[in-house]
What does this fold into?
Amino acid sequence: MKKIAVIFAFYWELRPLARRLGIDLFRSMRPVIEAADGYVILARSGMGADKAGVTAEDIIRDFKPDLIISAGFCGALSRDLKIGDVVVSDPEDRKLFCSPRPLFTCEEKTAAAEREGAIIVDMESGAVLSVAKKHGIPFIAMKAVSDTLLDELPRSFLQLLWLPRLLRLKRDVDLASNNLAEFLLDYINKGAT
It folds into this structure.
């Protein structure tokens, strides 16, 4: 069986998969978790390319995985994608654009789609890919849509605190993280082929 490292940006992206792998709540809060079988490593990097790259380097040094997966949430750059859809991308297919900053508006997302030709956007996968390539380790991205092309993201913490927006965000994040966990678990159980 392949040793698989799955790198997420945030805890709430990782937790549903950790739960399905039998990892308890307190253990799942660690930045790096080795599943009981020793073949699955889950890691949280924090937001952004720099943190994701450092985490990927650390994971490769400490665990020597056979495959690295950049997993987590993404924004949709296509009208065809809805909340909870899971998109798999490899370095060749150009489905995924790694942005240096969040894309808050439909206009920003549309411009990125036209410029990059991608259908989803995140902020971490490019750095993880770069580190994986440097070490000759296969890479794939598995991302769940947490905001659609038409969704406007809050620019400040105060905007996020508006109760209807907060409830919708929780619903969307729960759907995206649970769909991603099911997809990842199926992929891992099939031997990551």
